[in-house]
Amino acid sequence: MSSNKKEFINSPTFFVGVRGNGIISFGSGQPDLPPPPQIYKILPEYHSFKYGLTQGQINLRKALAKQYSGARPENFVITNGASEALDLTIRALSQKFGGGKLLLFRPYYYSYPFLVKLAGMEPVISDLKEGKIDLDDFKKKVKGCKAILINSPSNPTGKIESIETLKEIEKIAQKLGIYILSDEVYKDLIYERENYLLHGPYVVTINSFSKTYAMCGFRVGYLYARDKDLVNRIVEIKARTSMNTSILSQEMAYEATKVPRNQVESQIKIWRQRRDMIYNGLKDLGFDLWKPEGAFYVFPKIKNSTQAVNDLFYKYKVIVYDGVWFGVPGRIRLSYAIDTEDIKEGLKRIKSYIGSKKGKI
Amino acid sequence: MSSNKKEFINSPTFFVGVRGNGIISFGSGQPDLPPPPQIYKILPEYHSFKYGLTQGQINLRKALAKQYSGARPENFVITNGASEALDLTIRALSQKFGGGKLLLFRPYYYSYPFLVKLAGMEPVISDLKEGKIDLDDFKKKVKGCKAILINSPSNPTGKIESIETLKEIEKIAQKLGIYILSDEVYKDLIYERENYLLHGPYVVTINSFSKTYAMCGFRVGYLYARDKDLVNRIVEIKARTSMNTSILSQEMAYEATKVPRNQVESQIKIWRQRRDMIYNGLKDLGFDLWKPEGAFYVFPKIKNSTQAVNDLFYKYKVIVYDGVWFGVPGRIRLSYAIDTEDIKEGLKRIKSYIGSKKGKI
pLDDT tens across A126-160, in order? Predict the structure, then answer.
C-alpha cells in the first residue's frame, strides 16, 4: 500500500490514505472542508465505553426518523459508513433469496460489483446512455432480478437521474416486488434541482454523514428501510460481523443532525465554484466530459486511462482514478473535493502531461 | 429488539443493549470496570476527520508490532472489533478457496457457525471433551479443511487448552497447510498459567481492545497474520465493506497500547475474586460446572436451558445466555463481568428460580 515503491496501480485501494509529499489528489471522494465544529463539542466530557445497540443509538435514530416522512426509529440501522450499510443489505438479500441477480448501472461506483459477488449474488449490468439510465435496457434486464442498485447523484458520473425516470423505476420495482437499494450519499450535493428520494415498501435508502458533514474518518452511515424482515436480518448480521458502530462516532453524528440546514446548504456555493473551475479547466484543455449536476466528480474521456493513472501519479504526483475501476475504460475520475489552489495546480500538471503526449487526450 | 414485549428469546441479539430496569445481566461479555483513563485524554484536542488507511493507522500498527515477536506493521489490520477481524478473515479465505470447510470446536462462540456459513464456507464440528479439544477427533475431522478456528481461553467454556495440545495443532496445521484462526480476545484474562500464543505462517491471530481495556463500545480489534497474500485480500475486502476503522477509536486504542502492563494485570485479581464468587455460588446451589481458567464466563448445566433463559429474564429480570446458541442445549452461559453486588443479587434470584422448580436443575 506504499506510494514509494513503483508498484503498478490497478485498484483504488492503492491510494487510500496516500497524501502529502506534494501530491495533488483528485482521488478519494473526501471533502477537505472541515466538519461542523459542533460535532467536537461533546468530546471533552465524553466518558461512555460500553456496547451500544447493534441497530444504533436511539437518539440518533430518532433524529434521523424526523428527516424522512413517515419513518420510525426502528426503520434505521446505523452502520460503519454507507459502505457497511450497502454490504449488510446485499448480504441480507443474498441470505433471504439464496443468492440471485442484482441490477447495476454502468459506470458504477467501483465497490458495487465486488460487494455483490462477495455476498454471493450475481451482478446484471445495464449501461447508462450518456450518464443516464436507459429505461428500455433497464426494463429488459430487470426481469428476474431480486434488487436494483441506484446511485443518484452518481459517483463517478456526477449526473442525476430525472424525477420521471426515478418514479418509473419505483413503479416497476414495486410491481415486480424487487428491492431498490438507493445509495443517496450525495443527496445533499445537488447543483441543478431538488433531489427526489426514492421510496416505497421495497426501498432501502443508504446514506452517510461522511460527505454532507465531512465526517469520513469517523465512519457513520445508515440505512432506512420500511421492510421489517429485512431490517431484522441486517441487524442479526451486523450483530455477528461488527456489532454497534462506534458509540462515540454515533454521538458525533447525532450532534451533526442538529446542524441548521442553511449551514449545510451554504457549502453548495463552494462546491459549485469548484465544479465550474474544474469543468471549465478540463474543457479548455480539450477534454470531453459531462458537466456535473451533483456530487463532486468529473469523469472525462482519455485515451488509455490505465496508463494515464500511472503516469500522472508517478511522473506528475497527481492522483486520478481509472475509469476501468468503474466499469468503463477510456475515462478517468477526478474528485474536486479539494481547495481551489490544489485544483489549479492539478490542472497545470495535467496540462503538462497532455503536452508530453502532444495533446493527444 | 425491545425487552418490553414478551417476545420469545431465541438469539443473543435480543439482549444487546438491554439494561437498566433492575435487570441483572449475566449476558453480554462486557467488562463493567472502566477503561484506563489515559484513552480519554486525547479527546479535548481532537480535530481530525479524514479517511485513514483501510489497513489501520500506522502508529497503532507499529505499537502492536512491538507486542508480537518478529511482527511488522504490515502484518496487522485494524478492524471494527474482533468480530470484523473474524468476518473479514473468513470472507477472504472463502474468496481464496472458493468456499471450503472450516473446523470449529463445540461449544463455540455463538457467532462462529453463522459467520462461516454467511461467508459461503461449511462448518465442520469437533466436539470438545469436558471443554477441551479431543485430539483424536480433531485429527479425523481436520482433513480436507481449509482452516481451523480456535478460541482459548474459550467463550463460553472459560477453559484454556494445554500448551501441548496447541503445539500439536500448530504442527498438524502447518504440515497440512491449513490456516489457524486463533481468536485470542481473552488472552490477557488467564487465571491459571501464562498463555501460549499460536504462531506460524498460516496463523491469523485475532484480538481486541474490548476486553483487556474495556473499550467494547469503541469497536477496535485487529488481526495479525504473516501471510501477505491473505492480509492483502482482507484489506481489499475491508476497503469495500467498511473502509478504515473509526480514526478516533484507533487513536484511543493507540493510547491504550501505552498503558503499563501492571495496570492491566492488576485487574486479574478482581476477575479472580468474581470468578470464585460465582463459581462457588453456583456450586452451592447445586449446579454442575467447570471452574473457569480464563475469560469471564461460567457454563453450568441446566435442564431445558431455553425455558430457563426465558423464565429468568421475564420472571426474575436475570439475563443469561442459552447453551443452544453455543451449540449445546442443557447449559447456560453466565458472564461475570459485573460487580460483586450484582453477582450476589443475581445468584439470589437464580436461587429463587431453582426453588420454584423444586430444586430440579
Answer: 999 999 999 999 999 999 999 999 999 999 999 99
State the best of A2, A5, A13, A236 to mutate against chain B, taking most chain B CBs within 10 Å.
Answer: A13
Q: Are B248 and A243 an interchain contact pair (Cβ–Cβ within 8 Å)?
A: no
Full domain range(s) for residue A30: 12-34+280-356
3-state secondary structure A288-347: CCCCCCECCEECCECCCHHHHHHHHHHHHCEECEEHHHHCCCCEEEEECCCCHHHHHHHH
Domain co-membership, B26 together with B79:
no
For residue B138, the Cα-to-chain-centroid distance in whole angstroms is 21
Are B76 and B169 in a shared domain?
Answer: yes
* Cβ within 8 Å, pair A51-B114: no
Q: Percent helix, strand, coil in chain B (nearest 5)? A: 45, 15, 40
Q: What is the C-alpha to C-alpha distance for residues A216 and B245, in angstroms, rounded to an integer?
A: 11
Residue B4 maps to a domain: no
- Give backbone dihedrals phi and psi of B210, rounded to 5 degrees, phi first: -65, -45
Examine the domain organization and report whether A84 and A214 are in the same domain: yes
- Give the ipTM of the model, two decimals please: 0.94
**Sign of the CA dihedral running A256, A260, A265, A266:** negative
Closest B-chain CA to A115: B240
Assigned C-alpha cell, A97: 433469496
Q: For position B269, which CATH number holds?
A: 3.90.1150.10
State the smallest CA–CA distance between residue B220 and chain A in angstroms: 9
Judgement on whether residues B214 and B347 belong to the same structural domain of the protein = no
pTM greater than the 0.90 cutoff: yes
User: How many interface pairs between A and B have CB atoms less than 8 angstroms apart?
Assistant: 172
